Amino acid sequence: MTSRQLSKLTGRLAFWLLVALVVVIAVFPFYYAVKTSFTPSSELFRVELWPTRATLANYLQIFGQRSFLQAIFNSVVVATSVVFIALLLGITASYALGRVRFRGRTTVLLVILGVSMFPQVAVLSGLFEVIRALNLYNNPGGLILSYTIFTLPFTVWVLTTFMRQLPMELEEAAIMDGATPWITITRVFLPLMWPAMATTGLLAFIAAWNEFLFALTFTLTDGQRTVPVAIALLSGGSAYELPWGPIMAASVVVTVPLVILVIIFQRRIVSGLTAGAVKG
Amino acid sequence: MASVSLNKINKVFGSTHIIKDVDLAIGAGEFVVFVGPSGCGKSTLLRLIAGLESISDGELAIGDRVVNELPPRERGVGMVFQSYALYPHMTVYENMAFGLKLAKTAKETVHERVMATARILQLEELLERKPKALSGGQRQRVAMGRAMAREPRILLFDEPLSNLDASLRVQMRNEIARLHKRLGSTMIYVTHDQVEAMTLADKIVVLNGGRVEQVGSPQELYQRPATKFVAGFIGSPTMNFLPARLLGADAGGCRVGAAGLAELALPHDAAAHAQGAELALGIRPEHLRLAEAPDGEGFEIVNVEYLGNEVYVYLEPKEGDTLLIQRSEAPTQWSVGQRVALAPDPEHVHLFDAHDRALPIGPARAAA
To answer: What pTM was estimated for this model as a whole?
Structure first.
C-alpha cells in the first residue's frame, strides 16, 4: 500500500468517525429517552445502554390517564388549526406582498419581521389580557390565536419570497385567461407552492406542538391542556418523586408523529428551503 | 377578428413617459408588427392593448368599442408570452382549456375547441403531456394554442420566438405566417428582430423612444424610410450615412456634395432648405457601386467579408468612425488596401435633414 492510498484511507476513516460523532450527539438523547421509557421505575438509575428487563408499564400508565389522551387530542386540534389558519392567511398575504405593487409594501414586510422578533415572555402578560378580553382563557381557541400570531411572520416571509420567484408572466397569462386573483392563487399558484407550503406548514405544526409557555399560562384545567404542559405536570406517587419513566414514555409518544411527518415531507422540505437557491 | 384603433395613447410610469401620443389604426385581419430597439416601448404598447397595463391617457378601441376600462378577459384578446408562461402543473389539454373553463363554457364546447385548436397546431399527440416534457417549439405552439382556444378577436405576441434557437425560429416564423393566413385573425406581434418584422408583417410600426417613427408595409419602410432612424433600423447590413451639404435646389431636384463623392444630382425636393444646409446622405450597401480610384483619392478598403453568396466590402469613412459597407454578389474583384471611388445610384439615395426627417422625392420625378 502506498502512502498516498494510506492517507486517503485515514481521511475516509476520519470522515466517517466525524459522521458517527454527529449522529451520536443528535440521536443519543432521544435513544436514551426511548430506552428509559421501557425501563421499569425500579431500575431507572442503573446506567446501561440496553434495558435488561423491558416493560410497557410506563406506556400503560400514561395511556391509562384520560387527561393525557385529552391533551394529545387538544394538541392535534390546536396544531392543525394553527397550520391551516397560518397557511390560508400566509398565502393570501404573500400574494398581496409578493405580487401587488402598493406603497409601503417593504415597510409592511419589515414590520412583520419586526413583530416576529419579540420574545414570547415580553408579550405574555399583554396577550393574557387580550385572551381574557376575548373570553378565550382556558380554551384551545386562545392557544390557536396566540400560536398563529407567532407563526404568521415566518409563514408570510417564506411564502412571500417563494411567491416572488414565480414568474410574473404566469400570473399575466392567468389574467389573460380571465382568472381573478383568487382563482390565480388557488388554481395556478397554490399547486406550484406545495413545497413551500409543506415546509412552512410543518414548521408551524412543530412550533405549535412543542409550545409550552403560552400553553401553561392560558390554560387552567386538565381538559384544556396540550401535551407539553401535560407532560410537565405528570406527577409521581409523592411530591418527592419525579416519574421519569412515564415522562419519557409520553415524550416518545408525542415525538413520534413529528418524526413521521418530517419523514413524509422531507423531500418537500428540502426543496422548499432551497427553492430559488438554484434556478431550475 | 376585429380592428384596433389607438388614439393619442400615453403611458406614464412614475416620472418616466414611456408611450407618447401614439396614434395607430389596425385593420381587421391585419398582421401588424411593432418593432424597435429595446426600451422603445413596444412591449408596453402591446400590454396596454392587452389590458395588462392601464392607459394613462388616450383612447383604445377594439372593434367599435372603447376598451380603456375593460379587464383583459372582456377585451377578447389572447396573448402569447415570451417565456410561454405555461401552467407547469397542468397538461397541454388543461393549459388550453383553462381559459374556456373559467369563462364557464359548456364542457362539450371546451373539448371541441381544444381539440380543434390542437389539430391546427398539431398538438393532438401531446395533449396529455406536462409542459416540462415538451421541446421549446412544442411549448411555443401550446402557448399559441392557449391564446387561440378562446377564439379571441385579436392575438397578441410578445417576442414569441426570442427563446428559440435560430433554425427553430425560422420554422416557427413560417408556422405563424401560415397560421395567420389560415385563421385570418388580427394579430399584433412585438419583436426587436427586423427580419421577423419584414417577413411576417402586413404593416410594420417602427417605434423609437415611445413614439411611432413610421407605419407602413415592409416595402415602404425599406424603400422610403421616413426618418433616419427607420432607415438605419430596417435593413441588414445597415444603411450607410454620409454627411453632405446642399449645393442647390430647383423644381426638378437638388444638387448635393459629400466628402469623397462627386457632386450628385438627386430627385429630392429640397426647396424648403437653404443652400449649404447640412444633410445626411443615406445609401443602402447594395446601392453603392465601386470604381477604381487613383492613389490618394477615394476611399480605402479596410476589410472584405466573403459570405459565400455575397461579399461585404468595408471602407474607411472620411468622417466619423462607422465603416461604410458595400454589398455585392460574390465573387468580388476588390481586396483590402485598394482605393475606390463611390458612385451611388441617384434613384436609391436617401436624404435626411438636420431633424433626421427624410426629404421627399420632388413632384416632377415622383410623377414620372
So the answer is: 0.80
